[in-house]
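User: I'm putting together a teaching handout on how multi-component assemblies are represented. Below are the sequence lines for each component of a complex, exactly as they appear in our records. Could you produce the 3D structure of the whole assembly as structure tokens, so the students can see both representations side by side? Please keep the chain order the same as the input.
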Amino acid sequence: MSASSVSVEAVTKRFAGHVAVSDLSLQVPSGGIYGLLGPNGAGKSTTIRLIMSILQPDEGRIALFGASGNSRDLSARIGYLPEERGLYKKMKVLDHLVFLGEVKGIARNDARKRALDWLERLDIGDWAQKKVEDLSKGMQQKVQFAGALLHEPELVILDEPFSGLDPINAQTMKDIVVEIAASGRTVLFSTHVMEQAERMCDRVAIIARGKLVVDGTVAQVKADFGGRHVALGFSHDRERANAVLADPRLIARLDDYGASAELKMADGADPEQLLAALVSAGVGLRRFEVVEPSLHAIFVAKVGVDPDATPLPAVAGAAA
Amino acid sequence: MNKTLAVIRREYVERVRTKAFLISTLLLPVFMLAMAVLPALLMSGGDHTSRVAVVDASGSGLGQPVLTTLDAATIGDGKTARPRYEAMLFPADAANLAQVRDGLIAKSGFAKGKGRDGWDGVLVLDADTLSSGKLRYYGDDVGSPEGMNRLQREISKALAGVRLAKAGVDQSLVAKAMAPADMDTAKVTDGKLTGQSGEASFALAYAMGFLLYIAIISYGSRTLTSVIEEKNSRIMEVLTSSLTPFQMLMGKVLGVGLAGLTQMGIWVGTAFVLGSQGPHLAGAFGMGAAAAGKFAIPSMPPALLVVFLLYFALGFLIYGSLYAAIGAMCNTIQEAQQYAVFVTMSILVGFMAMFGLINDPSGALGTTMSFIPFFAPFTMPVRWSMTAVPPLQLALSLGLMVLGLMACVWFAARIYRTGILMYGKKPTWGELWRWIRA
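Assistant: Of course. Below is the structure of the complete assembly, with chains in the same order as your input.
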């Protein structure tokens, strides 16, 4: 693997009254998809703004492509979709994309051709001559997405790219992100939706309260989390499982979703024991599977802020 | 550089394309024409024949000469001449003067619609009039200074004639002596005739100052609102990742300025057409040829045009960058207005100074103000149009403008750099100072 696309070294950023990012270090290798995960307010957007030189770090340093220039000097190589979407409302869609291409240094004619291609590809070709304000929110987001990618940057930084999109548009965007990575370029995106990150990312970094919790390849993060995990799906008599699931000799940690649950086995306990206990209690099971821990489970265990999760009182201290 | 051009083009095209641009381009000349024509139309109210009742209680037969003089006055000359007054004599004496006068006054008013007996005014000559020159006029048209001056001139003429005759001067000699002077004014610049009348050069200076004021204040404040819009629509974050604050600032100010210059070009072009076709157009508006001639829009000498556009460009860049900096500091238009007041006041001072200048273009005030970069855009073109400005003064003024411009842009870029990404509370003066020094 060549030099890091993005290198964040011991960066701290304070705002009046609180520390948004605290002694954070990240290495985003070139190529592949890198997920920056964390709950709301964890410092994801601040980290991305620091990387984009929109904010200046109070301590530490940030390097892009191993070069000394800041992101503006290198802006022709970087595509950026900010969390707060913004376009000129009165401009025509095509003109807007051409403008975004031009400020990235593409010649006008070229920008126009690429913009038309992108609009076609995103299924909004008919809207090229419409004003931005006439488009729906989802379409505007597509336009901005195209604007960030028009100049074929080798590093694409997307802040919450899938929020506010319907499933079909989210799928379209996801395909594009995957394709960018497949062509050898680098995508760094932030999200608080773990399932998405788990399916797409080669590497992830989980941050909480401005601090790095864990990072590495997805497989590595899962392996490091350790333990044996079981996914359950209930068909009937769910309430009979309560006593079994509350047994700390069997279960170290539980994410209860009602009709399904994900749990981490206690040390020394076997999944077979759990299955036997559930069957003998008369619980109707739809699914019983020994699984890798999901990023969600890891996230909840490490950060401990998911309101859906019900950590067992007996082991809550150990898991935190 | 190409990036700045892209910003300039965007600002320019997006502005010139709007309906608002089209409407304001069309409406302002109409408005200015109305401003020029309406007072002329209103003031020329004396252009209809006035019916004047002359009450003669002088006891010395003063009434007849006054009547003769009034009857001799005409509107226009040559073939189109019409009598200016339709006067009738009412003899009276000290005893019944009040009665005769009040009877006539009762019949005066808006006499145009009334019958034969309706009077525009009643002129009363009493026993003292010949010696003291004092007399009274009662009328519904006393609000027209021009009309009253004219009437007073005619009566003075009659009085002078009577007094001279009483002193034994021959009537024919009196008539010769009383033949009036008729002065036409012509403007001289650098020892050459410009072909403009004094009134024309006043109208030109006034129109230019007004145009500069409107254009700088409206386009300047447009940079302010456009920066705030960019902040609020959050497009700023995308822009800052690609453009330097200086590129953004210059692109915006130049783009908006070019749009302003385009509009100016259209207006000045229109003024040229009006200048050459003025009388025909005035005819179309139903104005008399005399009124039209008085307020015809004069043609603009090319040198003046260059000075005018140069000062507009420099003035706009100074004020535009200041307005942009204020926009960068604030999050809402309301907030920005608190700061923008300072800039607007400075524009207003420059504009107001113009009125003083029109009276005394080469005075100390005018000369000083045309060296101060904030006021020069208004004062210098007006001075240039009114009088001959020494080339050295023009060069000094332009040089100071360029220096002032550089200082303003530097200052604005510093504020812009930090301000455009600041959301939330507006900065204190102390914070602003830190932004500038940082």
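A couple of points students might notice: Confidence is low (pLDDT under 50) at residues 289-296 of chain B. The domain at 48-177 of chain B is CATH 3.40.190 (D-Maltodextrin-Binding Protein; domain 2).
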